[in-house]
Every structure is written in C-alpha cells, then in structure tokens.
Amino acid sequence: MKCTDRQRGPVVDRSGVYHYRRRVPEDIRFLLRQIENANPGIGAQDKREEKKSLGRDKATAGRLWQQHDEKVEARWAELRSGRKPHLTIVEREALAGDIYRLWLSRLPKDHPSSGMNSAMFRGMMEEHDGDIPRWSSDRSTPEEFLQSMHGNDVDRVLAERGIRVSEAARWGLLEAAQRAAKQATRYAMQRIKGDLGPDPEVSRFPNWPNEASIR
Asked: What digits encode the pLDDT tens for the residues 9-29?
C-alpha cells in the first residue's frame, strides 16, 4: 500500500484488510511537535501518517473511512485554529474519563502505598469541596488548589487529543478532573479492600465523540 496525501477511500492490503491512510501535512507535524515539546512525558505526537485498520468488509470500511476522515480533518482544523473556544459536555466528561484512568494507574491495587495515597488525596479533595471539615493548614484558593492538583493532568489529556482550549473551558475541565479523581480514589479503595468488581459509576464517562469502534 502506498500512502498519498489524501487517499480517496480505503486501501486494501494483501491479507484483505482495508485501511485508512493519509500523509500528515508538514504544518500539522510542526504543531504536533510544539505540543510534544510543551508537555514532556506525554510521548511522541509527531507522525508522518494517519492510519487506521477498518476491517475486512468493503462496505463497512467505506463508511468508517468517511467517519475517520472527518475526524482527522476536524482535529487538524482545531490544531490550525489554535484553540477550541469551549468543550461540549460529552467532550469534557470524556476527557475526565481519561483523567480518571490516569489516577487509577497511579493507585494499583497491589501496591503497598496505594491505600494511604488514596485516602490522603481523597481527603484533600473532599476538604476543598466542603464535603468534610477542613483540618489541614492548606489555605490555597479553589483556583490554586485545582491548578496544583489537576493542572498537569488536564494539560496532558488535552495534548494527547491534540486540542487547546480557552481558559473558561480549561477551568470547567479542572472541575471535572476533581470529580473524576475523587471517583478514582473511591474505586481504588474498593479494590484495595478486596472488592474487585467493576466501578458502578464508570459508565458516566463517555467515549470521545465520533471515536471509531474498530481497533
């Protein structure tokens, strides 16, 4: 298969699997490198080609190709515009789900310090939300606390999606990150206590809009 600037429809490999393939423009690659350089630790963002497996059925592949091409075009348009003025509720909560999973990855059920860390962070967040009486000496403002606790995670998940947002949209995501992190610490404590069942509230985090189901 040969990648073109804009392959008009799926291409099929020798095994009969259809693919989306499109060369990433140089201006987009430059913007991706900027995101990568500004957010150490998120991994490589720059790539030469957008590609996705679309399965073996030709009709389904054609439909998925169109959907994914629209998604690619939308993401590139966002990158070129510099920022999204707002996040929809679905987008915000999908990003909160990314943050929820980040927190769970830091609180593995078999690590000896996970229980203590879960209780400590949950207590800090509940204090600042007024869920429990404040006992610590921390007197930071709500804005300072959310930025300190969740700012890096918010910037990371935005960068991984390749988007930048207005300050108002970022603030809304910081608040959603607080809710997601509290949920993650509750579920982490559930696992540490031996209840390995699924988080009953995890379904509230939607998939990113228009995310194709084919992997």
From this structure: 999 999 999 999 999 999 889
Task: Return the domain boundaries, the chain.
Answer: 11-81, 89-204
Residue 165: CA count within 13 A, CB half-sphere: 21
Band of residue 130 on the pLDDT scale cut at 50, 70, 90: confident
Helix intervals (H) in the chain: 26-38, 58-81, 89-106, 114-129, 142-161, 167-192
What average pLDDT score do residues 170-197 get? 90
Residues 6 or more apart whose Cβ sits within 8 Å of residue 191: 109
Angle between helices 26-38 and 142-161 (to 10 degrees): 150
Long-range contacts of 180-183 (CB under 8 A, 24+ apart): 180/96, 180/97, 180/99, 180/100, 180/103, 180/205, 181/99, 181/100, 181/103, 181/121, 181/125, 181/149, 181/150, 182/122, 182/125, 182/126, 182/129, 183/100
Alpha carbon distance 13, 1 (integer Å): 6
Instruction: Check whether 41 has a pLDDT greater than 70.
Output: no
Q: Is 9 left (phi over 0), alpha (psi -120 to 50) or beta?
A: left
pTM across the whole model: 0.59
Query: 176's torsion region: left (phi>0), alpha (psi -120 to 50) or beta?
Result: alpha
| Residue 193 φ then ψ, to 5° | -80, 0
